[in-house]
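User: What would this chain look like folded?
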Amino acid sequence: MWTSSLPGARNLQSSGRPNLKWRGFLRRHLTALLFLAPALIIYITFVAYPLIGSIGLSFTSWDGVNPVREWVGLQNYTRALSADDIMQQALLHNLIWIVLETIIPLSIGLLLATVLWDGARGRTAFRTVFFMPYVLATVIIAIIFGLIYNPLYGALNQFLRAIGLEMLAQGWLGQPNTALLSLIMVAAWAGYGFHMTILLAGLQNVDMDLFDAAKIDGANAWQRFIYVTIPQLSHVITLLVSLSLIGGFKVFDLVYVMTAGGPGYHTEVVATYIFKQSFQQNFVGYGTALSIVLTVIILLVSVLFIRLRERGGET
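Assistant: Here's the prediction, encoded as structure tokens.
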């Protein structure tokens, strides 16, 4: 009691309180911080630090070799967003890819998941077979379908000739009007098994009481599917659509191995264009700016889609 009346004693006590609070915080959360530290160090080293460095690099005209990096400000971003027709064409291809790559595998996966959910014989074997394409490496799939699409000895043209449709046989990857769609069909074939597996897992949580009640009320199979099954799969479908959105913007390996963006720029996507600008034409500064633009687009689209989906779920 006497010490608290001394001049400055209260200041000493109040100044010591933050230290005590900080020590208490460390004591309570030390174990959690120790567990988080390795992942945090890895994240900062391999994600945060390179990202910050890339942002700085995007404001330069660096060629990847010259030690001098000339500062150009927003010139790279202005060119990417307004003056680069190839970039805009590549972005359009990404958007087409997203739409078709969302609809096709999701529809096929939902159909197969519903059939297997009804208790088809050999469902385990069919599920394994349907999921197999997703396990294969994308480069292997690209090489295989590159042979299938071959205009001279490819299996697709050989099949068309065998059934009397030789007029449809063509160079699928060499024609501007078929190249992009051919790539999308390959991606859909590789991804429908994943969609089917996730949807089949979601179907296990469907409330069968509602299903039976709708059946008693006279709803046919299609009505039960649309008004009972689909609403209960909304969160699963949201997950698959969001993955398709992100994957559609990031697609690279399948396009690069099969067509490298050709013929011309008719299958060019943003990721392949970034690669060419950065490592083939040595415009590293501009390629980095393109990658930052792509990152921002993915973040904005993902956040907007999730917000709209959450708002729709609340209503």
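The chain has two domains: 3-57, 83-314. If you want, I can go into more detail on any region.
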